[in-house]
Structure formats: structure tokens, C-alpha cells
Amino acid sequence: MRILVLGSTGYLGAHVARRLGAVPGALVLGGGRSPAAEYVVDLASARPEQLAKTLVSAAPDTVINCAGATGGDAVTLAEVNVRGPAVLCAALREAAPAARLVHLGSAAEYGPGTPGTPVAESAATRPVGPYGATKLAGTALVTASGLDAVVLRVGNPVGPGAPSTGLPGRIAGLLRAAGPDPDAVLRLGDLSAHRDFVDVRDVARAVAYAVTAPGPLPGVLNIGGGRATPVRDLVRGLADRAGFRGRIEENAAGAAGSARSAEVSWQCSDITAAGRALGWRPVHTLDDALTALWEGGGVP
Length: 300
Description:
It comes from Streptomyces sulfonofaciens. By secondary structure, this protein is α/β, with parallel strands linked by helices.
């Protein structure tokens, strides 16, 4: 089985590629913007006919799209998160119409949740801000493509190798910089929001299950931890592992905060459908993920 992983050098993509490498009979091919990639692909700028030629060369049985933008202006987000899936689907229809497409979406597509009520795939989508809106548009393009495709809507990934562009990696970096100094102060924004954190290794396992699952799959499947956890608990969990002796100031003046946290105060995914369709459930706890992150592990 030939599996092309797009975005293979990113946080999710690297974990996915490593996990798929353990699948019996799988040949994992790396794709991405890096000149070092086996197949150099930039979904933000590639033409469908150009990408189709790359797909003919790679001859994949499955394509995993882990490429995506989480930050930047609306134009950048749209180029990667909307144009990218559109070009990929067009190229697949031309060059590899029988290949399965596994596309990584985001729980941000749902927008604000109702406290105490996990969100199922059938729920209304009301994304807040351009990131969630562009990810939702990408999902719509994939599910309407006519391909053998599934979108895995991923919660908030955390675990080994978490980058500083996300909250867990950023907090870990701040704690490493603070060290054991009892006078150190971490000035953070609002930590009251609840999020569905999922270990990145469980995300990679879900992708592997989606690759090998027989028959057509539902268009969208939630991949999350299945519980809402206060962001404050994540910060304190990392601080405990760091032996942090200083002070954490929440809602500190001048601290960088997230507008989305204020607008989406509670989020939790119903992961029942993924259990039915893939036989998947998370096996790592948030404690596992935080320990792996703090111990400095990269891709396992």
C-alpha cells in the first residue's frame, strides 16, 4: 500500500507518517513544501494539473492531507485551508480517482459549544474567526468531492513535540525559560475556556485506522479526547511537571490572549461515531500527553 502524507514534516504530519510506517505492507511517501520532501507539494500555490502529475508519479493508494495553516491573515489561511483541499481533490479526480483521501479538519469548525453537551458530527457549524471558517470550507470541498474521502475533525492536539505556535508548546517553552526561579512570573491571558485535548499519538492512530478501514467511511468523524478540560488545568499540569516555583498571573495586563477563547468558552467533541466506524478511542490521557510533552519527546 502506497501512502502519500502531505504536510509530513509538520507536527501532526510527522506523527502520522511515523505511525503509518508501522502498518504492515505500507510504503509511506513524504510530501510537503520542503525541498527535502520526496514529493515537493505546496497546496497553496500548486496548479491542479501540476499536482496531478505528481500524483501519477507517486501512484498512491491513499493520500493523507495533514497540510494546513493555523495562523496568519485570512488570505494565508484561505490559500492553505480552502484552496489547498480544492486543488488536491481536483488533482485526485484526474490522476488517482480510486485513492482514499483522509483529510485533517478541526473542531474549530463547530464554533461555540454548549457546556455539558459534546458536539456530534451532525451539529450545526458556527465557526468563530477565519481559521475555523477556512477549515470548514475545506471540509465542505472534501465531502462534496465525490472521492472516497473522510475528514477527521481533530480537537486540540497535545503531546510530544508540540510546537510553540500552539498553547501547550508555548507554555512549555515559557516554563523552560523560567526554570526554578521562585521569583519568576508567567503572565498569561484568560485560562477559563474548556477545550477537548487529544494526544497527538491518538490522532496518528486514528489516521492509521482510517487508512485501513474497509468500505466507505462517514464524511466526517470527530477525533478528540471526548472530554472538556479547563485550559487552566493544562497550564497547571505543565507547571507541576516543570517544578515551577514562581507565580502564574491569569488575565495579566498586557498578556497575549486569545480572542477565540473568549468567544468559544467551551468545546467538547462526541467521539462515538469514530468508535463505530474505525474501532478507535483515545488510549492516552491528558496526563500522558503532558508528561510526554514536558520530557521533551519528539515524534515517537
